[in-house]
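[step 3/7] fold_predict: job queued, chain A
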Amino acid sequence: MIVVADTSPLNYLILIGHIDVLETIYGEVVIPPAVQDEMLDPLEHFPCCWGSQNSCAAAFSLRKTPIKAAALDYTHRGNALAPPSVRAWIKNPPHWLEVRTPAHINIPLDPDLDAGEREAIALAHSSGEKGLLLIDERIGRKEATRLGLKVTGTLGVLEEADKRGLLHIREAIELLRATSFKVSDSVLKQFVDIP
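[step 4/7] structure written:
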């Protein structure tokens, strides 16, 4: 089974310190070049860095080894960049991550999708295998489902990791909530009891 990831699940799993669960759960994860590019220097693709460093700083402060605030400078000429930890991770990717160019991207997709979402959907769709797409954005999930792809997102990965004893979902979600990850309380309640 091929597992293709969009930027958002990778970004948030890196930020909360649980990126390694992907290898344990899926073995190998494939990303398209546009996702790699977004993780290297996305400018507008990382909402945790838009205009404020507080949400990322809060997430890092919950880690066992806090990161100094000075390390959380995600701006360049006023534009948000991928957090340093995300850029460092993708510059030296683990052995279980493969960058693969989609065979074709000529499938009709919502024009509001960004390049990473389009390429991730196209890669999963063109793989010819039954696979899974890791994607958080609502429009992207809708388009992938329309094309018959199986989808899950950051919360689904965390839930599976919890079932396998790789993490405690309540703690992982608390870390996630300290970032800019956007999800309604009603969706969160499907995973944990929240105040």
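[step 5/7] annotate
The chain has one domain: 2-188.
Residues 43 and 80 are 5 Å apart (CA to CA).
exit 0
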